[in-house]
Fold:
Amino acid sequence: MEWTTMLKEEFIIKTYCLVDDTMKKVTNNIRIRRRGPSPALSDSEVVTMEIVGEFCGIDTDEGIHQYFKSHWTHFFPKIGDRTAFARQSANLWHVKQIMRNAFLKVLAPFKVGIKAIDSFPMPVCNFRRAGFAKIFKGNAAHGFCASKNMNFYGFRNHVVVDISGIIEDCSVAPANIDERELISDMEKAARGVLLGDRGYICKEYRKEELEKNGVLLLTPLRDNMKDDRPRRFVNRINNMRRIIETVFSQMSERLNAEKIRARDIWHLTVRIGRKILAHTLACVMNMLLGNPILQFERILT
Structure:
């Protein structure tokens, strides 16, 4: 099979076109700022730079700004100083959230309706330094990651993923929060069949509460629990859940989502939102190219 790929220049242009068209639709061409002069860079240009930077593994405002100022001033001739770029980027957080919802509608034909939920750790600092850490004091907490067999101090990013690979929603919480509690926070995205691992096993009354809200939670059972379900059915659940491992790999390796490069909750939320937007747009790009939506390595030559 022949794959469709692009040069970096084409990727930047196509990303800008998608971002600009979507931004005009979600804002209905209404001016975002009610007072003051318009910034030198348009909002579409800033969001394009963020998405392209994240996709290429550059995940700091300083790094993205420096990369485009060094290599792409012929596309973005009005790049100003870094602080103006960072401020404009952060202030667009709500617009970017609305834009991601618009991209999710574009991806609707790929959605299966069966979803998976899991979380990955986001350490604030080395575990040995946790007792001395002042950053995120009162917000971060100690936790344990079973998949990596490690204790850490920080947060968990809880993610709901459609089994086609599209991120539906995420919620960042202290590392000591029970995974099952976060299902309620993401109930709208989790509606339908929701696949979890053994960490999401809950009591019958809690499962009944979720079912009343439209969430059918299915998990493998522990070795000491009786499972009357057909073995083939259980294997099918486990196989479908593995899609979330692919998404987490992309989030950690390409988008550096496990690294915290913020000093407060608001900037951390903005940072995670940008990465989720970049992942969603990459899925849209693959859809337009006719590639499998999670084959990100096929986008660029």
